[in-house]
């Protein structure tokens, strides 16, 4: 049975939310996900700085 995602240190940068979590092997993962309708951007990163950079430079492709 998969563990539910429990995000910590969630921040919002524009429409993108960045949060930290532990994966099933106990490693830290950082996720950036856009909350704009019909955007669909989300990605996992190994460092928090990379996730925040992705959030700052993200531009939604939806009109």
From TrEMBL:
Protein name according to UniProt: Mobile element transfer protein
Domain of life: Bacteria
Organism: Streptomyces ovatisporus
Taxonomic path: Bacteria, Bacillati, Actinomycetota, Actinomycetes, Kitasatosporales
Pfam families noted in UniProt: SpdB
């Amino acid at each position: 049975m998969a563990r539910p995602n429990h995000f910590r240190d969630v921040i919002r940068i524009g429409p993108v939310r960045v949060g930290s979590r532990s994966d099933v092997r106990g490693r830290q993962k950082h996720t950036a996900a856009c909350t704009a309708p019909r955007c669909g951007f989300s990605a996992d990163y190994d460092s928090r700085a990379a996730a925040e950079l992705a959030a700052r430079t993200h531009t939604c492709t939806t009109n």
